UniProtKB/TrEMBL annotation:
The lineage of its organism: Eukaryota, Metazoa, Chordata, Craniata, Vertebrata. This is Sodium/potassium-transporting ATPase subunit beta. The gene is atp1b2b. It comes from Gymnodraco acuticeps (Antarctic dragonfish). GO terms for cellular component: sodium:potassium-exchanging ATPase complex. InterPro entries: Na/K_ATPase_sub_beta, Na/K_ATPase_sub_beta_sf. The keyword Membrane applies. The chain crosses the membrane at residues 29-55. It comes from the Eukaryota.
Length: 283
């Protein structure tokens, strides 16, 4: 009995009499394979066709979907640690040297020589518009020079340690890029202001901004995107802490002021703002 069952199983796998493998002849198997082959080629073809049609409708130079009123975030350099905490000791070179190095690296594309090579001298205080005319793309688009020397005492040129050594550190702020954004209305440029959180107001001391008034000149807007405007240099604002209380934590918040950029909206509490903690030890 057991032997018979065994035979039946074997015969199912390979039946020498009918020349069937797993119950099918070679030609039957062949047809099945052929069917699936054609089927999958067809599916792949459909996929490629759909992709192709989709990609045709995308413009290389402009995102198809973008929030209409996205408020840009702000970031600082040097970043400090992951909590935006910048701590160092003026007595210990190795504790602040890395901040100076970070800024050197960050600012090197802003060297005047590099800017002159890449970018235009633009007319200040007005938008640098380079619209496409209908279907005719006005590409590539030029960008405006942002010379490192604009940052003056925070440029790392007159003071290669950016004030860190003497306890008057510079922090550099940039506004994240938003394609097509025209910040400021009626010819008023957006500007950055920094202040201490409530409990630290006594400790922040006097601030100095570069460029003066902490403005982002209107000529750096609008931004047309990475592909259309390859050499774009984001404008920067540096803030120097001239008399900050040492040996204590100071909580600082900087924000963008523009008459058409809402800050700290419901949707994004951090829009247009950045907070960080500065602690300068001297002992
Ligand atoms: C930028 O300028 C600084 C000093 O002015 C120099 O040390 C640095 O090598 C320059 N960087 C580039 C990329 O040219
Ligand atoms: C940037 O610096 C270069 C050389 O120092 C100068 O020729 C150029 O006019 C400056 N650009 C702007 C926009 O100030
Ligand atoms: C970008 O900069 C390079 C030099 O670094 C220059 O040759 C090129 O023309 C610039 N392109 C645009 C679109 O400004
Ligand atoms: C800075 O702002 C003050 C007052 O708003 C203005 O009088 C002054 O011209 C501004 N300075 C610069 C360099 O924009
Ligand atoms: C610096 O700040 C201290 C208080 O923290 C104050 O007593 C001193 O007058 C300030 N110095 C200057 C030059 O503003």
């Amino acid at each position: 009995m057991a032997k018979d069952g065994d035979n039946g199983w074997k015969e199912y796998v390979w039946n020498p009499r009918t020349r069937e493998f797993l119950g099918r002849t070679a030609s039957s198997w062949g047809l099945i394979l052929l069917f699936y082959l054609v089927f999958y080629i067809f599916l792949a073809g459909m996929f490629c066709l759909t992709m192709y049609v989709m990609l045709q409708t995308l413009d290389d130079h402009k995102p198809k979907w973008q929030d209409r009123l996205s408020t840009p975030g702000m970031v600082i350099r040097p970043k400090g640690d992951e909590y935006y905490q910048i701590t160092y000791n003026t007595q210990k070179t190795e504790s602040w040297d890395m901040y100076a190095q970070t800024l050197d690296k960050f600012l090197s594309p802003y060297n005047n020589t590099a800017q002159v090579e890449k970018n235009n001298v633009c007319k200040p205080d007005e938008y640098f518009q380079q619209e496409d005319s209908g279907e005719v793309k006005n590409n590539p688009k030029r960008s405006c020079q942002f010379n490192r020397t604009i940052l003056d005492e925070c440029s790392g040129i007159t003071d290669r340690y950016y004030g860190y050594q003497e306890g008057k550190p510079c922090i550099i702020i940039k506004l994240n890029r938003v394609i097509g954004m025209l910040p400021g209305k009626d010819g008023q440029a957006p500007f950055v202001t920094c202040g201490a959180k409530k409990e630290d107001t006594e400790k922040i001391g006097e601030l100095q901004y570069f460029p003066p008034n902490g403005t982002f000149n209107l000529m750096y807007y609008p931004y047309y995107g990475k592909k259309a405007q390859v050499n774009y240099s984001q404008p920067l604002v540096a803030v120097k802490f001239l008399n900050i209380t040492t040996n204590e934590d100071v909580n600082i918040e900087c924000r963008i002021n523009a008459n058409n950029i809402p800050t700290g909206s419901e949707r994004d509490k951090w829009a247009g703002r950045v907070s960080f903690k500065l602690r300068i030890n001297t002992i």
